[in-house]
TrEMBL record:
Keywords: Glycosidase, Hydrolase. This is Glycosyl hydrolases family 28. SUPFAM superfamilies: Pectin lyase-like (SSF51126). The keyword Hydrolase applies. The lineage of its organism: Bacteria, Pseudomonadati, Bacteroidota, Cytophagia, Cytophagales. Belongs to the glycosyl hydrolase 28 family. InterPro entries: GH28_Enzymes (IPR051801), Glyco_hydro_28 (IPR000743), PbH1 (IPR006626), Pectin_lyas_fold (IPR012334), Pectin_lyase_fold/virulence (IPR011050). It holds the Pfam family Glyco_hydro_28. It comes from Hymenobacter psychrotolerans DSM 18569. One of its GO terms (biological process) is carbohydrate metabolic process. One of its GO terms (molecular function) is polygalacturonase activity. The keyword Hydrolase applies.
Length: 222
């Protein structure tokens, strides 16, 4: 897909592969996809994978994208019951402006109310109970994003995995994100930030990290 312009009422460039049991039974991942030189105006998401990704998605390369006024910029979404593995995704050279939601979003609670909301006035986040891992447990892993700018968003980066299945091996490099909030990360493993500048406009902490491990931010060197 190349040289396209989108102005739509839902997600714009959206990768799917079937929903829940039917998608897993079909077992055909969306793979080997090249997306380049596209512009998105109105949309729920600029570049999106999910939430119907139960057959999996892999080996996808997207570059030279512009998002203007999309609700969310780069969006990965799923929920318990979907299953499927999203991996080997490479995104680079993305410019965004006037994003009402998140510039970069990984969310495993799509269309589900947060089971453990923060207590008003507290920065502590209650522990969310894990559920057994089964064929309906989705996975996001091995995703690289580089050369990204965002001028205006609610949150620069939001990562929200499941307690039983962290979002894993995410690399974000060479990014400048101006947003109300900087970064919020919950249930992640192996997040690497290199040359990432967060410019929040609020007085909240620039980075909030909960129940996550194997973090690396450079400089200093990882």
């Amino acid at each position: 897909m190349e040289g396209c312009t989108f102005d739509v009422g839902d997600d714009a460039i959206c990768i799917k592969s079937g929903r829940n049991e039917q998608g897993r039974a079909r077992a055909m991942p969306t793979e080997n996809v090249l997306i380049r030189n596209c512009t998105v105006y109105r949309a729920h998401g600029g570049f999106v994978i999910g939430s119907e990704m139960s057959g999996g998605a892999r080996n996808i390369y997207a570059h030279n994208l512009t998002f203007i006024g999309t609700d969310i910029g780069i969006r990965f979404k799923t929920t318990r019951g979907r299953g499927g593995i999203v991996e080997n995704i490479f995104i680079e050279n993305v410019d965004m402006k006037s994003i009402p939601g998140e510039a970069i979003l990984f969310d495993m609670y799509y269309m589900i109310k947060d089971p453990t909301p923060q207590v008003a006035g507290s920065k502590e986040r209650p522990v969310s109970p894990a559920k057994p891992v089964d064929e309906g447990t989705p996975q996001f892993r091995k995703i690289a994003i580089r050369n990204v700018t965002c001028n205006g968003a609610r949150t620069g980066i939001l990562v929200r995995g499941l307690p039983e299945m962290s979002i894993k091996d995410i690399s974000i490099e060479n990014a400048v994100l101006q947003a109300d909030k900087g970064l919020v990360c919950i249930e992640a493993d192996g997040i690497k930030l290199k040359n990432v500048t967060l410019l929040p406009t609020s007085t909240d902490p620039v980075m909030e990290v909960h129940n996550s491990r194997n973090w690396c931010r450079s400089p200093p060197a990882c």
